[in-house]
């Protein structure tokens, strides 16, 4: 699996939404709309939590959740 492909896809998808989309990795919080933030964080086999808040949060959670699954990333979407 290429993490680069996952990162580009996640960032592009996140930027379509107005909601705040944040990935939590241990004690760090990363804006998913920031490619640079993802590159420095989405490494190794960490477990992540995705926090989405805003007017289109449900759609964002669904689409990003599908990308995480497709790339076998260990991410829990927090409801």
TrEMBL record:
Annotated ranges, domain HPr: 9-69
Query: Signal peptide position in this chain?
Result: none
Q: Which InterPro entries does the entry link to?
A: HPr-like, HPr-like_sf
Record's Pfam families?
PTS-HPr
This protein is called what? HPr family phosphocarrier protein
Coiled-coil annotated residue ranges, if any:
none
